[in-house]
Amino acid sequence: MDKKKKVTLSILLANLFLAFLGIGLVVPVLPTIMNELSINGAVVGYMVAVFAFVQLISSPIAGRWADRYGRKRMIVIGLVIFGLSEFLFGIGKTVEVLFLSRMFGGLSSAFIMPAVTAFIADITTAHERPKALGYMSAAINTGFIIGPGLGGFLAEFSARLPFYVAGFLGVFAAILSFILLKEPERLEETKVPEHSQSTTWKVAFKPIYFIPLLLIFISSFGLSAFESLFSLFIDHKFGFSPKDIAIIIMGGGIIGAVGQVFLFDYLTKKIGEIRLIRWCFLFSSIVVFVMTIVNHYFSILLVTFIVFAGFDLIRPAVTTYLSKVAGNDQGFIGGMNSTFTSFGNIFGPIVGGMLFDINLNFPYYFSTIVLIIGTAMAMYWKEASAVANKNSQ
């Protein structure tokens, strides 16, 4: 990768870092806001689901717009919407306003992620792409590393302050992107043919795409039931404060980022994306179950760190695979990636929230079962591996 592309990638990653720093800021104070408004687990589940629902219906269109109107434009608009959604959540005093905020948040995610993935595909070769996408995931996780710590600190002054800071960071990242990012030149493999049929859902059901997209759905379905209620789980079960929650999530983020920077590129080259996905599914299903039986502070910390490490390798592995085989459908497949993620993120939190109100451990039993199903599917994914290797040569 030449110097100009490295600078562009650095700017792109810096903006992603700022956006996800904003998201990380609010995590430790969510239980405080939920308790303040007397919101139960089911309502939290629906709140996460409405975010995912808006992302679901918007992602295919946003992915196609990223191909048609440009990556930069979609990123800037998405960051502005994200900033506004955080400001809205900060001033929200009713459940209805919080739901509206999450709807804007889902729209912003649909605009940003397909465009960023396609942008990276444009400025990298097939050989460089796994490392670049690993850096993208690391930038996201680094935002989560610093964000909760800063959020826990800001919450000492006001439980609403982290949302205002997150909103400011979103708008600042949008300005930074508008000034510094240059629309990339499309590689021949990422250009959209004039009569491309990628605008239809038929593309997503091609065997080479459908299996990884289905795995994305399964992983999101199981993991969202875990992640969406995580802060509430440790708040209700262990009585953790916003500062405790910040420490746990920061530690998990550090482990995940280290794994992505130093292990992801090596593992994908050593064993391939598909085999890595198999092991991560198996690994995650075991550790999520262990979360229900630990009861000491440091054992909770250790298990959480390991859980995040496994989770943080699955998505970049699937994204890298899809990027390799997407050809001239980069933006569209990036959108479908977000769409299938949203399918899982809609139903996982709803089921998890309902189970949470019955028993605190039930969402984690549910996640374990879903991840085991994902493991079985990934083990079956042998023929797809051969097809992917053939197409990447």
UniProtKB/TrEMBL annotation:
State the UniProt keywords alphabetically.
Cell membrane, Membrane, Transmembrane, Transmembrane helix, Transport
| Any one GO CC term of the record | plasma membrane
Matches recorded under SUPFAM superfamilies: MFS general substrate transporter
Per the record, the major location class is: membrane
Listed Pfam families: MFS_1 (PF07690)
Task: Identify its membrane topology class.
Answer: Multi-pass membrane protein
Gene Ontology molecular function: any one: transmembrane transporter activity
Q: Which Gene3D superfamilies match?
A: MFS general substrate transporter like domains
Localization of this protein: Cell membrane
* Record PANTHER family: CHLORAMPHENICOL EFFLUX PUMP RV0191, PURINE EFFLUX PUMP PBUE
Q: Which family does it belong to?
A: Belongs to the major facilitator superfamily. TCR/Tet family.
Q: What is this protein called?
A: Multidrug resistance protein 1
Q: In which organism is this protein found?
A: Caldibacillus thermoamylovorans
Which lineage?
Bacteria, Bacillati, Bacillota, Bacilli, Bacillales
